[in-house]
Write a structure and sequence with these properties.
13 strands, alpha/beta, nine-stranded mixed β-sheet, 37% helix, 25% strand, 11 helices, binds uridine 5'-triphosphate
């Protein structure tokens, strides 16, 4: 089993980031100098994936344009010897083979992934949520692929979240396999207190068996009237083996304002163009507070 393809669902409406996301896809909002979606594509590429499908909708064509060439702009940058900028925009367009499919109705994450059925075919595939950005030494999706290939099964990326926060996530019933890898026996989306299995929550990264497509096809709408991926995952972990990987790395939910600001700050502090300057600015600012 080899994981060669990735799917990035990015067709959500982004209501937590309004009004900005009324016309700009949240995946195109910049973290320092690159749109959020580029970090996700780079993570997949760093894990050895070459073919990537982005699930979009009718208001997100800025993403297709971003990963395309732009000859007029390139000519201008060339003429004015802006070599760094030229190299950067070319690099983004050449990162991977990127494909697009539209989710014609916003019917939930499970439905968005089901739209990838023809692209994926009959092989295991990676899923990286379009608004979950990871900062890690080893690409998080690569950590999952390693476990999925070792155990020949689906894998989900998890971390422990505080008990008071687990009701916003999907809680997993797990049994230890090795240090940071567990067997998933069951899971529950947005559990009430008495339904919590554990503090391990799925955080935006998956390697899925193609069996998920038949499951998603037959699913009835769940919470919020949407086709929920976690309803599909519950069936998948009951019929086939699934492991959870407690991954190394920090996850940012850039689909909400606070998560987006945290990511902006951390990425800017790390960035050679802004790190030093931002440190000094923060020190100055802290004295004023
Ligand atoms: P979210 O719930 O985080 O994104 O979905 P959203 O729906 O855009 O956000 P809000 O709540 O309105 O602010 C998780 C992922 O699933 C995708 C989103 O783009 C995001 O990557 N998604 C969600 C779809 O692709 N299609 C959908 O119908 C719903």
């Amino acid at each position: 089993m080899k994981v060669k393809k990735a799917v990035i669902p990015a067709a959500g409406l982004g209501t937590r980031m309004l009004p900005a996301t009324k016309t700009v896809p949240k995946e195109m909002l910049p973290l320092v100098d690159k749109p959020a979606i580029q970090y996700i594509v780079e993570e997949a590429v760093a894990a050895g994936i070459e073919d990537i499908l982005i699930v979009t909708n009718r208001s997100k064509s800025a993403m297709d344009d971003y990963f395309d060439y732009y000859p007029e702009l390139e000519d201008r940058l060339n003429a004015s010897q802006k070599e760094r900028e030229l190299a950067e925009i070319r690099r983004a367009a050449d990162l991977a083979n990127i494909f697009y499919v539209r989710q014609k109705e916003t019917r939930g994450l499970g439905h968005a992934i089901w739209r990838a059925k023809h692209f994926v075919g009959d092989e295991p595939f990676a899923v990286l949520l379009g608004d979950d950005i990871m900062r890690a030494k080893t690409p998080v999706i690569g950590q999952l692929i390693q476990a999925a290939e070792k155990y020949q099964c689906s894998a989900v990326g998890v971390q422990q979240v505080p008990t008071e926060a687990i009701s916003k996530y999907c809680s997993l019933k797990v049994e230890a396999l090795e240090d940071n890898v567990f067997t998933v026996d069951d899971l529950v989306e947005k559990p009430r207190r008495e339904e919590i299995f554990s503090n391990y929550a799925i955080l935006g990264r998956y390697v899925l068996s193609p069996a998920i497509f038949d499951i998603l096809e037959d699913l009835k709408p769940g919470v919020g009237g949407e086709i929920q991926l976690t309803d599909g995952l519950r069936q998948l972990c009951r019929q086939d083996r699934m492991v959870a990987v407690d991954f190394e790395g920090k996850r940012y939910d850039t689909g909400n304002v606070r998560g987006f600001l945290e990511a902006s700050l951390d990425f800017s502090l790390d960035h050679p163009l802004t790190g030093q300057w931002l440190r000094e600015y923060i020190r100055k600012k802290a004295k004023e507070l």
